[in-house]
Amino acid sequence: MALNEPMRVFLKRELKRNWPFLVGFGVTFTIVTKMTLGLTEEDAKNSPFVQRHGKRVHYTRNDSLELRCNYEDVTCA
């Protein structure tokens, strides 16, 4: 950016160069969001990835705002 160049001119020039990246990020974000929101608890139970890695971590907060993580087979404080 030239020192005396108005911001409007700079943004217009950069938008012409970078629009494919912005569109790509937007499309990717939309696809990932829709796929993530579409998953259910039943899908997770039937997933080979979840079955392979087995443990699920549940985080809870108690009254003193300490985080406790509870595994299905191990409890840690």
**Overall spatial form:** rod-shaped
* Quaternary state of the chains: single chain
Low-confidence stretches: 73-77
Q: Give the strand content.
A: 15-25%
Order of helices and strands: HHHEEE
> How much is the average pLDDT?
75
**Structural class by secondary-structure content:** alpha+beta
What is the CA-CA span between the terminal residues? 53 Å
Question: Main sheet?
Answer: 3 strands, antiparallel
Helix % is 55-70%
What is the helix tally? 3
- SS elements, strand count: 3
Side-by-side strand order of the widest sheet: 1-2-3
Based on CA atoms alone, the radius of gyration comes out at 23 Å
Detailed description of the structure:
The protein has 77 residues and is α+β, with helices and mostly antiparallel strands. 56% of the residues lie in helices and 16% in strands. The chain is built from three helices and three strands, in the order αααβββ. Strands 1-2-3 form a three-stranded antiparallel sheet, with no helix packed on it. A hairpin with a 3-residue loop joins strand 2 and strand 3. The C terminus is likely disordered.
Quick overview of this protein structure:
This protein is α+β, with helices and mostly antiparallel strands and 77 residues long. It has helices at residues 7-37, 41-46, 48-53, and strands at 57-61, 67-71, 75-76.
Blueprint (SSEs and pairs):
Blueprint: H1 7-37, H2 41-46, H3 48-53, E1 57-61, E2 67-71, E3 75-76
Antiparallel strand pairs: 1-2, 2-3
Please name the defining characteristics of this protein:
3 strands; rod-shaped; disordered C terminus; three-stranded antiparallel β-sheet; 16% strand; 56% helix; alpha+beta; 77 residues
